[in-house]
Amino acid sequence: MKEVINTKLAPGAIGPYSQGTKWKDLIFTSGQIPLDPKTGDLVEGDIEVQARRTLENLKAVIEASGSSITNVLKTTCYITDMNHFQKFNSVYQEYFREGVPARSCIAVVELPKGALCEVEAIAFVKEL
Asked: What are the backbone angles phi and psi of residue 84, rounded to the nearest 5°?
């Protein structure tokens, strides 16, 4: 049975979707952007500031499902400017150090609320 993931530690959905869903041992997150979970406002700052907030939001959704960011299998990353690629990667590496997940990184014209980046993930819940 599908379970909807919901946490106040990540921003609420800004459209008709959930923060994530869990099915059996798999977790599918919606794309997270750099919104402050308390205010719902876009955080101000450069790509590094926005990437850090985005990945904190992603981490919160994954942890709310009973898993960990170390259990991420695949991420899809969207950035609005490929000139931000190296700086985005430096922040990304703070969250994914060993056993890094498979990843796609796509340049897009625009993201919701004017965000510079967005990240979604597929993870698993480790059985005890």
From this structure: -90, -5
Using the structure block, give the residue that is written with the tokens 């967005």. Answer: 118
What is the DSSP-derived secondary structure letter of residue 6? -
Classify residue 56 as exposed, middle or buried by CB count within 10 Å of its CB (0-12, 13-18, 19+): middle
Kindly report, residue by residue over 19-42, the tens digit of the pLDDT: 999 999 999 999 999 999 999 999
Distance between CA atoms of 88 and 111, rounded to whole angstroms?
15
Contact 64, 21 (CB under 8 A): no
Other Cβ atoms less than 10 A from the Cβ of 26: the count is 14
Give the model confidence (pLDDT) of 99-116 as tens digits. 899 999 999 999 999 999
Return mean pLDDT, the chain: 95
CB-CB contact of 22 with 29 (8 Å): no
C-alpha span between 123 and 116 (Å, rounded) = 23
